[in-house]
Design goal:
The chain is an all-alpha fold. It has one domain. It has 19 helices and no strands. Helix 2 runs parallel beside helix 18 and helix 13 runs parallel beside helix 16. It is globular, with a radius of gyration of 21 Å. The N and C termini lie far apart (49 Å).
Length: 404
């Protein structure tokens, strides 16, 4: 989710051609849209609030909002791929990258996982209500969440596991992608990184359609080899963005490209919801390519002042990791406190109080987490990586001078 969760800065997006750390408003907007779609999917479509005759049309319309995860993956590939290609020649390439990635993903995940372990150790499941839904492992081992292998167990067992940690299968895919992308960008010459990324996208699509034994919904959704199409579609777009001609073309016609991208995304989504493209085999790779085009369109610098809905989406995009990690668990706790029941077991139309309270707490907690926990750690990680780079550069120059 990511989510999925690097800071979209112009320095990264423009792959070394800018030295500023100003954020990319367009990519923050996309990320905000992605996290809001996922929140709507879990809090509205997957609960009882829309299961009424009057709101059934919204239930159908939001039935595929989980595609926001695909947009997260593409954005992650675009930003991580661009950052890696920018720093490929640095002597501290791996250490700098590892410090920044660990500083972004691990701390908040460890806190959330610790809360889960504490509640489990205290026997919260015995309270009944929503706690068995929140904490029940369904056969998944604890250590799978420590090793980022929960997505493989989810596919094998056909379960999302404890809903407190249910969304973290995406983090597992992210971590696997982080490792693979760092190795590939280091080994593959830059001019070949685009074709290699497209080959990985094609291979993932082939695996989705032909290559997996049972090809059940859980397997296609959560297994890393089948979901590498989205992040590597992002890497391919980052490779294209490094070309000056691409940046100049999109920059000159940014409004047109943004409108075209939004129309393409909307058309593709409506064809899935109301058309005949409901098979996941035909969705994920198409999503990856469409969201990749949207990412390129929105990577261009902003012009003009954004409207308040866009500002809100950008606010969500900045805090998307906390929103993504927190929302299902907080929704479950709110449902337990108000109804003593999990949110997906309430009578049709009865879950609005839990959804309202849960979302309010989620947004507040995400804001606090970003300001006082995530952002300070990210700054520390960036400073630590920069210091390592300075030391590494000095040591590298010293080593060279000894042999001259």
């Amino acid at each position: 989710m990511t989510l999925l969760f690097d800071r979209p800065t112009l320095r990264i997006v423009q792959a070394g051609h800018q030295q500023t750390e100003r954020r990319s408003g367009g990519l923050d907007t996309l990320r905000g849209g992605a996290v809001l779609a996922v929140l709507a999917w879990h809090c509205l479509n997957n609960t009882s609030v829309l299961r009424t005759p009057a709101l059934s049309f919204l239930q159908e319309f939001s039935s595929h909002f989980f595609f926001g995860v695909d947009l997260f993956f593409v954005l992650s590939g675009f930003l991580i791929g661009g950052a890696l290609m920018e720093s490929r020649e640095r002597p501290d390439y791996f250490s700098r990258y590892a410090v920044r990635r660990i500083g972004r993903i691990v701390p908040l995940y460890v806190v959330w996982l610790a809360a889960f372990l504490i509640m489990s150790w205290l026997g919260a499941q015995r309270l009944g209500g929503a706690f068995p839904w929140l904490l029940g492992l369904d056969g998944m081992p604890y250590w799978s969440f420590l090793t980022f292998t929960q997505n493989f167990y989810s596919a094998e067992l056909g379960t999302w596991g404890p809903m407190w940690l249910g969304v973290t299968w995406t983090l597992a895919i992210e971590v696997h992608f982080y490792v693979l992308a760092a190795i590939l960008v280091y080994l593959v010459p830059p001019r070949w990184m685009g074709p290699v990324s497209l080959a990985i996208v094609a291979a993932a699509f082939v695996l989705q359609v032909y290559g997996w034994p049972s090809r059940g919904w859980e397997e296609i959704t959560v297994l890393t080899p089948l979901r590498l199409d989205a992040p590597f579609a992002g890497v391919f777009c980052a490779w294209l963005w490094r070309a000056r001609a691409t940046r100049e073309l999109i920059g000159r016609h940014a409004p047109m490209f943004k409108c075209a991208a939004l129309a393409l995304v909307a058309g593709a989504y409506l064809s899935v919801v109301y058309g005949n493209l409901r098979d996941p085999d035909s969705n994920f790779t198409a999503n990856a390519l469409i969201f990749g085009l949207a990412t390129l369109a929105f990577a261009a610098p902003d012009s003009g002042s954004p409207s308040w809905p866009v500002r809100f989406m950008r606010w969500c995009g900045v805090r998307c990791y906390g929103l993504y990690i927190f929302h299902v668990g907080i929704l479950g706790l709110a449902s337990h406190m108000i109804f003593t029941s999990p949110p997906n077991a309430l009578s049709p139309g009865m879950g609005w109080p839990a959804v309202t309270v849960g979302l309010a707490i989620t947004f507040g907690l995400a804001a606090v987490s970003w300001r006082y926990f995530e952002r300070p750690i990210m700054r520390w990680a960036a400073q630590s990586a920069a210091q390592r780079g300075s030391v590494g550069s000095v040591m590298s120059r010293s080593s060279v001078s000894r042999f001259l």
